[in-house]
């Protein structure tokens, strides 16, 4: 009876020894894989297990420090890029605003003075203003321009017919302002109409 009761205990001990042996073998395999990932790994020169663990810990810590430095550098570069982007956007917006067409219209009795400031690429606006005045039977007497960096200052003098003095001048002024401000609903660009004559002299040959 005593002999039979000892058999299960012996079997359990053998099983535990096998489990422990498999665990140690598995740990050796894992340590070996870990060691193979280290930069100084040399399969022909095995090192003791404690040294493998210490080397892996030191390597992981050094990599963490490098990752931290790299992240800080990345964040610094991204901040610089965002700042340059904001500066470029602000500068571009300022340049765009500075070059946006600006129109001033002055009415003195029957005389009409039109002052247009625009970019070099917006020359057509001034030609179109002259065409529109011609359509309204307003006599353009003189026109001149001057350059200031990337902008052009146009000055035009015209004579308003007596019949238009009460209401016509305001109508024309509003039409010119709508056109320069971007509302071309009542204007179709027709380059062939730009070549009409001006009483005082021809416009420059841009």
Low-pLDDT residue spans = 183-206
> What's the CATH H-level superfamily name of the largest domain?
ACT domain
List the domain count as a whole number.
Answer: 2
CATH level 1 class label of the largest domain? Alpha Beta
Separation of the first and last Cα atoms = 122 Å
The shape, in one word, is rod-shaped
User: If you compute it from the alpha carbons, what radius of gyration comes out, rounded to the nearest whole angstrom?
Assistant: 44 Å
Largest sheet: 4 strands, antiparallel
Query: What topology, given as strand order, has the largest sheet?
Result: 1-2-4-3
List the keywords.
206 residues; alpha+beta; MYOD Basic-Helix-Loop-Helix Domain, subunit B; Alpha-Beta Plaits; 2 domains; four-stranded antiparallel sheet; 4 helices; 4 strands; 54% helix; 17% strand; rod-shaped; disordered C terminus; protein dimerization activity; transcription regulation; MASH1/Ascl1a-like; HLH_DNA-bd_sf; BHLH domain-containing protein
Describe the structure.
InterPro entries: bHLH_dom, HLH_DNA-bd_sf, MASH1/Ascl1a-like. This protein is α+β, with helices and mostly antiparallel strands. The protein has 2 domains: 2-93, MYOD Basic-Helix-Loop-Helix Domain, subunit B; 100-195, Alpha-Beta Plaits (2-Layer Sandwich), CATH 3.30.70.260. 54% of the residues lie in helices and 17% in strands. It is built from 4 helices and 4 strands, in the order ααββαββα. It has helices at residues 2-36, 49-99, 123-135, 168-180, and strands at residues 102-108, 111-119, 139-148, 151-159. It has a 4-stranded antiparallel β-sheet, covered by helices on one side. A hairpin with a 2-residue loop joins β3 and β4. It starts with a helix and ends in a 26-residue tail after the last helix.
């Amino acid at each position: 009876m005593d002999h039979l009761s000892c058999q299960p205990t012996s079997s359990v001990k053998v099983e535990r020894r096998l489990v422990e042996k498999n665990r140690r073998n598995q740990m050796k395999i894992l340590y070996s894989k870990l060691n193979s990932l280290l930069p100084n790994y040399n399969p022909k020169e095995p090192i003791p297990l404690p040294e493998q663990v210490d080397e892996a810990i030191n390597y992981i810590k050094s990599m963490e420090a490098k990752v931290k430095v790299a992240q800080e550098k990345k964040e610094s570069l991204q901040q610089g890029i965002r700042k340059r982007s904001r500066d470029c956007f602000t500068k571009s917006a300022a340049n765009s605003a500075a070059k946006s067409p600006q129109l001033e219209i002055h009415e003195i009795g029957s005389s009409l003075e039109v002052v247009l400031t625009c970019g070099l690429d917006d020359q057509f606006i001034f030609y179109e203003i002259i065409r529109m005045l011609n359509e309204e039977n307003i006599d353009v007497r003189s026109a001149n321009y001057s350059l200031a960096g990337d902008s052009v200052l146009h000055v035009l003098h015209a004579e308003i017919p007596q019949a238009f003095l009460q209401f016509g001048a305001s109508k024309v002024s509003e039409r010119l302002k709508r056109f320069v401000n971007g509302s071309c609903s009542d204007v179709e660009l027709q380059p062939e109409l730009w070549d009409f004559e001006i009483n005082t002299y021809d416009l420059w040959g841009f």
